Amino acid sequence: MMSLALSLLSLGSVRGLLVGHGAARPAVRSSLRMADEQLYCLNVRLNIKPERREEFLAAIEANRAGTLSAEPLAVTYLFGEDDMIPNSFEFFEQYLGRKGFEEHTQSPHFAAWETFAGSDPFTSEPQINFYVEDAPGKPGAAGSLVGKQSLFCLNVDLHVKPERRDDFLEALRADQAGALTAEPACAAYLFGEDADKPNTFHMFEQYEDRTGYVEHRKTDHCAKWNAFKATDPFSEPAKVTFYKTIEPASVQKPAVTPKPYTPDFFTPGKGEPKPAAKGKGKGKGKGKGKAKPAAEPKAKPAAKPEPDKFAGNAPDGFEWGGLY
């Protein structure tokens, strides 16, 4: 059981999780930011007890209904459920400087969130990463869809070898520029260095849908980024999480548990031998009333190799092994 005394936690704690926007507001308040301003960002992960899910969603809605309507320095709030793990939620937030985040933690709607978060709703310690944008961000071609429909997002953690830092930044900036200027389905693509861990970088990407992300993976600029990754620039494996944003209208819908993946070459129950048929004749005469011999069970085809455990959840045409 985990107990959180949230009022005593530092800025590296769960304090900044649920900022947001009311149903009538866009997810990005772009009118607030200056052209040369780099925003203060958070990538967050929360794992919720299944029996607390509905309370959790209600707490999110109450908090995000108050934040962008009452906090002038709150810019962006997005969240969604992990594609692979039910009741695990990813968040992305932006503020006009650290001051904006600190002011958020003093708001009455945040105080209400603290009360909920202090009631032991989590299955594990919240994960919060703070960073400042590498460069002033700009929306992609699909940026106008933000706040109007559910979008496909990625939160990414990258750990770069110190001696490869400059090469890394050059390669990632090139992929970012290509996505934002040449991809019609890209809504956002930004990254920055962790506030406390040198050479650890966090990314946020957003696309119109899964297909948009798959198309991104096919571009020339992404191919160059993949070529860079093949040169062993990272000190440890990347962590990548996929999710679709939950918009205000969908929060109240019943939870949907992903169906388990079943390979198309196997359907439980098929291919099993049928029981022998009982005889229909009457009497006990020789050859009469006897059951027909059981049919020989058909030989099962050779089993195919077990598919990758992620295969049923991957976007069409996408290989999970080729992530970051």
Secondary-structure blueprint of this entry?
Elements: E1 40-47, H1 53-70, E2 74-82, E3 88-95, H2 97-104, H3 108-117, E4 127-133, E5 152-160, H4 165-182, E6 186-194, E7 200-207, H5 210-217, H6 220-229, E8 234-245
Antiparallel strand pairs: 1-3, 1-4, 2-3, 2-8, 4-6, 5-7, 5-8, 6-7
Helix pairs in contact: 1-3, 4-6
How would you describe this structure to a colleague?
The chain is α+β, with helices and mostly antiparallel strands and 324 residues long. It has one domain: Alpha-Beta Plaits (2-Layer Sandwich), CATH 3.30.70. Helix content is 22%, strand content 22%. The chain contains six helices and eight strands; from the N terminus they run βαββααββαββααβ. The chain has helices at 53-70, 97-104, 108-117, 165-182, 210-217, 220-229; strands at residues 40-47, 74-82, 88-95, 127-133, 152-160, 186-194, 200-207, 234-245. An eight-stranded antiparallel barrel has the order 1-3-2-8-5-7-6-4, surrounded by four helices. α1 (53-70) packs antiparallel against α3. The longest helix has 18 residues, at 53-70. The radius of gyration is 26 Å and the shape is globular.
